[in-house]
User: Fold this.
Amino acid sequence: MEQRWVEAAERLHGIYPVVDAHCDTVLRWIQGESLVSAPSGQVDLGRLRQGGVRLVFCALFVERTYPPGSRLLRALQLLDRFWQEYERHPRDLLLIQSRGDLRDLGTDSRIGVLLTLEGGEALEEELAVLRQFYRLGLRGLGLTWNQRNALAGGVAEQRAPGLSDFGAEVLRELNRLGMVVDVAHLSERAFWEVMEMSRGPVVATHANVYRLCPHPRNLRDAQLKALASSGGVIGVTFVPGFVDRDAPSLDRLVDHLEYLCSLVGVEAVGLGSDFDGAEDRLPGLEDAGCLPRLTARLLARGFREEDVARVLGGNWLALLERVLP
Assistant:
């Protein structure tokens, strides 16, 4: 990599905010790590600042080992662990709950956090639980993980069902409250039903291009176009198996970004690393502090500065301005 691109990337990371639309860091915290000390993780305060990250979507993910009836409690434990860390670092973190909070991001050095729930199992089939999560600060929901739940079918199932009646109720409530609707992990049938029913933008916080890497979690061209048409954003993920089956690399990740920008327009493309959500790490993007390397690759490929700014974070910020109350 030529030094001029490295220097240009460092300059851009000092100017434009980076938004990462998916990480599982709270699960690391409940396992003993913290915002300032995450030796086995990919995200901590120092690496976020090194990478120029100004806003990160933190997912509450309830592990599959928790049976029905215990998932709400586990989600609340995760949420409590987040709040413990948040209250210890009031000068470092800003919880994003509204458009007004987004505007506060530019006034000081705090890093924004948008809380999401990855998988609707924790709702325990009660809309009241969703409303309570909203009151506790959550602003996004991924309807399923890989398997079906009471809301919809998951991508890992054969002949997976679509959206259930309860899932349709949840979708309407997400739209009403002003929460981010995330179709990552959904079955294809459920994906299309969400696209048809949602009254607002729909996003995929962490997924790549199926045509370039035929992983079941990656999205086909028609799905990518539908997300963009809804006003949504696709967050390209750094998980190696989603980047390339045989030779995942930083340059191959840029192939996904380049393809997406050509297919759906640069205004619908962002980042969704899935840091702390997978064991494998993409060479060159091992943690949040490595993000300027991605920017250098984008510049070397001929991306314009204004388009790099959109991909790094501008598109997610614009979406949240439209969705949040």
Remarks:
- The CA atoms of residues 59 and 116 lie 5 Å apart.
- The two ends are 43 Å apart (CA to CA).
